[in-house]
Specification:
It contains ten helices and no strands. The protein is an all-alpha fold and about 220 residues long. It has one domain. Helix 1 packs antiparallel against helix 6, helix 2 runs antiparallel to helix 7 and helix 4 runs antiparallel to helix 5. It is globular and about 60 Å long.
């Protein structure tokens, strides 16, 4: 491969990783936010590494992943569940859940959510690498530091400004809604228009923020 083409593909992969890391970083930040700092680092590293290992394995069927019925639907519902769960967790004392259970739970959230949210990322990297295995592995491994750094930064901001948890949950409402409404089964059966998608995503954002606020007020949240 000519050096110029190689450099172009590498830079394209870096750009794709930077552009698509945001949603994944947000869900990871919310998943580890209730952990202590040293546990948070472990959760971030193991969760992101586990997700990337699965991404590499699934890259070989990347083109088919976006058309698998119910995959994005299930992933979207899971993201919505995480968005509400983090608001519930925010109302619980840090020591109310045993550390090992809380850490394993956070890693599980990260792996499953990251995997279901990363189909577009996998397809984009597979496309720009032109099926070159070395470039695909490079691109997927490169996403680890981008996502971990972004997630750690977001988690620290949420520590300092807890109200950002509501904003993060609202954004995940939009992400989850988009995943559900673009699932191949939903598109084939319901044919949602762009206007319908925007309305439903907006309703989910408001519902999560308002519902989370009401829930936290009843449980006397710390946010």
């Amino acid at each position: 491969m000519p050096l110029g083409h190689l450099i172009y593909r590498v830079l394209s992969i870096v750009f794709i990783d930077l552009m698509l890391a945001g949603d994944n970083a947000l869900v990871i930040a919310l998943a580890v936010r209730s952990l202590q700092p040293h546990e948070r680092r472990i959760g971030l590293i193991f969760g992101a590494a586990g997700a990337v290992i699965l991404r590499i394995g699934l890259t070989f069927v990347a083109a088919q992943m976006l058309s698998v019925p119910f995959l994005k639907l299930a992933g979207g519902l899971f993201v919505l569940w995480i968005a509400m769960k983090v608001l519930v967790d925010a109302s619980e004392p840090p020591d109310s859940v045993p550390v090992p259970k809380r850490l394993v739970q956070a890693i599980w959230y990260i792996v499953v959510a990251d995997l279901t949210m990363s189909t577009d990322n996998i397809v984009a990297i597979a496309g720009v690498s032109y099926a070159d295995l070395r470039l695909m592995v490079f691109g997927l491994c490169l996403s680890i530091p981008f996502v971990v750094f972004s997630a750690n930064l977001l988690a620290k901001l949420m520590d300092r400004y807890p109200a950002l948890i509501y904003l993060g949950s609202g954004i995940l409402g939009q992400v989850g809604g988009d995943m559900i409404l673009t699932d191949s089964f939903v598109v084939r059966r319901l044919h949602p228009t762009d206007a319908v998608r925007y309305v439903i995503e907006g309703v989910l954002v408001v519902a999560l923020i308002v519902g989370g606020k009401i829930l936290c007020d009843r449980r006397r949240c710390r946010v």
